[in-house]
Automatic annotation (TrEMBL):
UniProt domain Electron transfer flavoprotein alpha/beta-subunit N-terminal: residue ranges: 22-212
Tree of life domain: Bacteria
InterPro entries: ETF_a/b_N, ETF_b, ETF_beta_N, Rossmann-like_a/b/a_fold
PANTHER family xrefs: ELECTRON TRANSFER FLAVOPROTEIN BETA-SUBUNIT, PROTEIN FIXA
Protein name listed in UniProt: Electron transfer flavoprotein small subunit
SUPFAM superfamilies listed in its UniProt record: Adenine nucleotide alpha hydrolases-like (SSF52402)
Amino acid sequence: MNIVVCVKQVPDTTEIKIDPIKKTLIRQGVPSIMNPFDKNALEEAIQLKEQYSGSVTVISMGPEQAKATLREALSMGADKAYLVTDRAFGGSDTYATSYILSKVIEKLGPFDVILGGKQAIDGDTGQTAPSIAEHLGIARLTHIRSMKIDGNKCVVEREIEEGIEIVEAKLPILCTATKETNKPRYATIKGKIDSLKADIENITLADLPNMDITKIGLKGSPTRVKSTFIPERKSSCEMLEIVNPRETAKVLFGKLAEAKIL
């Protein structure tokens, strides 16, 4: 079984700060990590490889520093890794990014299963992975809890608002993982050492001759981020003097009802 996992290097959101003048993310000095949901997708891919045999290929689109995330994936058990990088790809939104990644997957494939996280913690759109399936013309099943392969079919349990549904679809298929899908493993010392020796190949625009350049980069992106900001926090406090607990509770419930909290 051939499996490809799309991962993204993201800023650690616990350290996120916004430039008050430029209204953009301050990335300098902010540590980068593998998108947590992508790590669940990678774990699922490795488990599929262990159960059904095959190989796991990991791809990431970004600058040269994103190779650190790819090496982390290799240390966990991925077999091959590729960095998709080119100045022409800069400024790509989720549509353009998914188009570029779909062309890379076509070049490296064929693949039986494509995996990704349900969303990235920096953008939180949840659009890129499902859009890859649309570009490739294959089925997609999002927010999976588990998946099993039965011949040329995939049986998936996925989360929905009403509970859990079981869905069957033909391969090839794209699935997105959540924190509930599994618990990612820790890399071994040997895996970390081997990942440092691994050769990670760059894939650029020149390697993708069938690419429609009108669909990539800033010009090929139908959406724009005009501004990023932290919402202003407004709060007030009113102290209630406790003379009689019963009367105080009555006043408190009245104020909560007035504020439409209850």
